[in-house]
């Protein structure tokens, strides 16, 4: 599935914590061997100053504690991620609105969007682009300040149908005076899958994955 990016923190830290712990243990073992060797071979009449070694022992202890706490925190976050996944499973079968202009077209379902303008508009033009930024379709829409669009992939120029995949909608709206009007665009569709990707709960809609952080509204399907 194609994925929409998320800013949710990556939780793949357990492996790093384990690696850091192993390196710390190896260095600490080497340190103890060197310390033991020096103590065994020191001059009894001029014993070594142990203050530096004591300070280093304290530093090792602090680093070890930090690594252990990091590992514990990662475990807690992983458990929370699993809990979020279980809760998000309730969204399956529900209709969602997401803060994204990108929607998915499949052989079974059209790409769908909703929009809302800041004020009344007199003209509205829709432009649909593919993942490479190429313009695939351009059409005039009913100039209502709020509405929905379902695109089945049909192409106005030359006929034919666009291939399944992710498509992005942009809207150019103007008022009666010809002034540009900002329009908020949302991707819509029925949630058919919930999964985790790198610790982030993702909602699958028509073959496209969205992070739950982009979810704006959930509407029960009738």
Automatic annotation (TrEMBL):
InterPro entries: FlgD (IPR005648), FlgD/Vpr_Ig-like (IPR025965). Keywords: Bacterial flagellum biogenesis, Cell projection, Cilium, Flagellum. Pfam families: FlgD (PF03963), FlgD_ig (PF13860). It comes from the Bacteria. One of its GO terms (biological process) is bacterial-type flagellum organization. Residues 107-176 form the FlgD/Vpr Ig-like domain. Required for flagellar hook formation. May act as a scaffolding protein. Belongs to the FlgD family. This is Basal-body rod modification protein FlgD. The lineage of its organism: Bacteria, Pseudomonadati, Pseudomonadota, Alphaproteobacteria, Sphingomonadales.
């Amino acid at each position: 599935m194609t994925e929409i990016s998320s800013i949710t923190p990556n939780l793949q830290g357990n492996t790093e914590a384990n690696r850091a712990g192993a390196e710390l243990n190896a260095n600490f073992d080497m340190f103890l061997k060197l310390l033991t060797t020096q103590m065994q071979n020191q001059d009894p009449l001029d014993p070594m100053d142990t203050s530096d070694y004591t300070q280093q022992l304290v530093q090792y202890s602090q680093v070890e504690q930090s690594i252990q706490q990091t590992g514990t925190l990662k475990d807690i976050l992983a458990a929370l991620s699993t809990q979020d996944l279980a809760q998000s499973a309730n969204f399956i079968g529900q209709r969602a609105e997401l803060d994204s202009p990108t929607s998915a077209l499949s052989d079974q379902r059209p790409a769908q969007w909703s929009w809302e303008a800041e004020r009344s508009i007199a003209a509205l033009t829709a432009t649909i682009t593919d993942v490479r930024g190429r313009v695939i379709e351009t059409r005039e829409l009913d100039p209502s300040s709020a509405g929905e669009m379902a695109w089945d992939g049909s192409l106005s120029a030359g006929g034919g149908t666009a291939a399944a995949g992710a498509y992005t909608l942009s809207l150019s709206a103007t008022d009666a005076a010809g002034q540009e009007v900002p329009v908020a665009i949302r991707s819509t569709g029925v949630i058919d899958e919930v999964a985790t990707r790198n610790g982030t709960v993702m909602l699958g809609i028509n073959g496209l994955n969205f992070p739950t952080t982009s979810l704006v509204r959930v509407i029960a399907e009738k």
